[in-house]
Amino acid sequence: MLVAAFVVPAILIWALLGLLVSLVPLSRVALAMIIGYAIYYGVAEAMRWPGLRPPGRKWQVPGQWVAGRSASWRILVWGFLLGPGFATRNPYAGFWVLPLAVAAVGSLRFGVALAATLGLLHASGRAAALLRDVRTAGPANYLNSVLWSMRWRAFDGLALLAVGGAAIGVLALRW
Amino acid sequence: MRASKLAAAAALAAGLTAAWLMPSRLTVLAALAMIIAAANGYSKAYSP
Fold this sequence. Notes:
Largest sheet of chain B: none
Helix content of chain B: over 70%
Number of strands of chain B: 0
Strand content of chain A: under 5%
Oligomer: heterodimer
């Protein structure tokens, strides 16, 4: 139930995004944007520079949407809003390179398939993280969560740099 | 700091080399995007 509530809306929303961005010829522009975005944020995260904050929002699910409701309703609301990943905060810059990667594909079928897969993977990871945090939540784990976040930020930066390098390769060698 | 610089340069070079070597260059980009998607979802703190 929990995993389905996260994964199903994520696949649908990401597939719709893939459809929309694949209808417009954005491939080269998206690759150029990936290079600039991935290298800037990749260097900032991997080198632990303060830099600009990753784009995103701080909105969280309002308490009154879930307070006093059934567990099934809460899971549905959280799954719909957290699974796709667009509605709530994204502490790592890597998230916003994903729509650009979908736009860079330049093929309707492959773009929709990639977008749906990205939605599936993000939502599955989010559901797994929720289950993990329900088991381990508590003030004693605050320091661990800060260290965890720093490590993931560095990993995200390195992954972004690899994406930036791949985008340079695609742009330079394809055209 | 030196290790971070080396790791950053290696990551950039690895992406570039992989795209250069693979017959389908966009496959590398797609695979990296999949890794980021899964890691991004899993790495977020519990904050609904």
